[in-house]
Amino acid sequence: DDDLDLDLTKLKKKKKKKMADVIDDDKEDEGSTFPNDEAPKIGSLGGPSWLGSERDYTYDELLSRVFDIMREKNPDMVAGEKRRFVMRPPQVVRVGTKKTSFVNFAEICKLLHRQPKHLLAFLLAELGTSGSVDGNNQLIIKGRFQQKQIENVLRRYIKEYVTCHTCRSPETILQKDTRLYFLQCETCHSRCSVASIKSGFQAVTGKRAALRAKAT
Asked: With CB atoms 3.0 to 4.6 Å apart as the test, which of 3, 33, 91, 184 could cross-link to 103 if both were Cys?
């Protein structure tokens, strides 16, 4: 009977942990990769605020993302700012009483990186007259025209056939594919078709007089 006389008061019963405590202990045992067991908030590491989130992007975030991509692919491009295209004014002088000379025609073609034939066709179509390039690379236009008129035509040409229709950059290439012309931008790499040159009204009284004289 003495063997059965045991002091059970000193034996402590092992306390069972609650399931919530076990889960908390497991989380603590996993360890944290961040100091002070504090995870950084989204965007606190310098990244965009939308990273790690399943919410829809806002318009401003999408716009910012697009410009960031454009900056990465085109370092020379100043995103968000329109680059102004500066062109030398045309030098226009009178030749006699019925003709006008576009003195620096060839120089402007080089500055625009366009073929003289294409710019010539546009000028003559817009002015509704005829003309040709002489031995000094000057454009001789039939009729009396002011410098302001030539400037306005050049502005329309630059807007349609030189500056990019997307980013307004002047760094473009005019390519011809079959019967169509395409404007290829070297800055944003967009490509779009441009309108074909349509000739305007031209008086044919001189031609009719020549035909009548020939018929008689």
From this structure: 91
What is the spatial distance between Cα 184 and Cα 49, in angstroms, rounded to a whole number? Answer: 35
- pLDDT value, residue 16: 57
Nearest to 68 by CA among 48, 84, 85: 48
Q: Domain 92-206, CATH 3.40.50.720 — does that match?
A: no
Reported as a single tens digit per residue, the pLDDT across 162-208 is: 998 888 888 899 988 888 899 999 888 889 999 888 765 454 545 56
Residues 6+ apart with CB under 8 A from 212: none
Amino acid at 82: K
* The pair of three-digit structure tokens given for residue 9, joined into one six-digit string: 């008061």
Q: What ranges do the domains of the chain cover?
A: 92-206
pLDDT reading at 105 higher than 50: yes
Give pTM, 2 decimals. 0.57
- Residue 74, CA distances (Å) to 77, 96, 169, 184, 185 in order: 5, 50, 12, 15, 12
Residue 141, strand partner residues: 100, 131
